[in-house]
Amino acid sequence: MAKEKKIGDSVGSLMEYRNLAWKCVRCGLCRGVNPEKMIHPDHWENCPVGTKYKFEAYFAPGRHELVRALTVDEPEVEVSEKMREIVFSCTSCGHCQENCHPIKGLEPMNVGLALKRHLIKQGHGPLEPHHVLIQSILNYDNPWMSPRAARAKWAKKLKDLKIKDASKEEVEVLYFPGCNDSYVPELTDVSQTTARILSLGNVDFGILGAKERCCGSTAFRVGALEMFEKYKKANVEQLNGLGIKTLVTACAGCYSTFANEYEGELNFEVMHVVEFIARLIREERLEFKKDLNLKVTYHDPCHIGRYGGLYDEPREILKALPGVDFQEMDRIREYSLCCGSGGGVKTAYPEVAMETARKRVQEAKETGAEVIVTCCPFCEMNLKDGANAESEPLEVVDLLQLVNEAL
Ligand code: SF4
Ligand code: SF4
Questions:
Q1: What is the span of the domain harbouring residue 98?
Q2: Which DSSP category does 223 fall into?
Q3: Pocket of ligand 1, candidates 101, 106, 335: which has the most ligand atoms within 8 Å of its Cβ, to mutate?
């Protein structure tokens, strides 16, 4: 199945994006789902932050107006707390760009990222809550203030698998769990499950353990470009020296960072685990034995969907699982609603993340599903928070958990 890359990030300055921002005609197409694809009018609006705050300034055209004002010879506005909120509350979900780019040729999400970098350069960022993340990455190579030595703690329970150390032994595939699936207690089972599935599929794989470091995604998305470049350089040097054919990750953020921000610099292919598992299923290397008897719906993470074009693979896997009744939500694939937590928003503006997650959970409930399935640690954590805030919570699971259960 050909993977069509939909959108990617860019590192351009605000001045480089000025011409694109000027071309915005404020038609509003970027605010909602393409009318031809819309099923229910309640699900039309699709910019999580604009929908939350309601003012035009928070939607893509409003950001374009800010660019106009900030890039004239004598800027017409002063950076205020409100402006910082407008700029840094964008989740970088890419929905506006998905709608605008094919028709008008503009890149509103990339403009939003350039705005974040611009404010940081002018000394108006990173935001205070992001300082903690950045300092932690600098001190520990992860945003969770956890020691490097604990990075592979999740693998300790899997001695029977005899997971190889990719820094010492030759392996075909490097499994790169990333910071969240390595350290966050509610997510380490994703790493354990991935390793078990790779093992069952007889994949020659290894991990870097304590030698793995952050991919730099968090730094990039909160606008800390210099720091991101430092991590990118170190990772490119280390990973290219391993002699691997493929890097597999179950984190949508790591996947999109390696596939987009490191593009052209790696000497191996980068795959999200859903691509890899779909391939194993096609090659008949996994045998599903258990009937799951479950009604599920699927939430497309922005970082493998709009950023990576991986829409079919997770659905292919769900349809291969015995006893799974799969129901689609209204907003899917290119028009999926962001979970609300990307771009450092869950840390800085938790109310935006929570409100968006609750909307998504509501939409999932309308399908009659018992479980929301996703395959991104950020989506999983945020949707779980949203689901638990409901009077009748809905279960949220990673797709790999279902695959593991069915095996
Ligand atoms: S960003 Fe694009 S789609 Fe949105 S208002 Fe401007 S021109 Fe229209
Ligand atoms: S990237 Fe997402 S959150 Fe940001 S302006 Fe575009 S649609 Fe809204």
A1: 14-121
A2: T
A3: 106
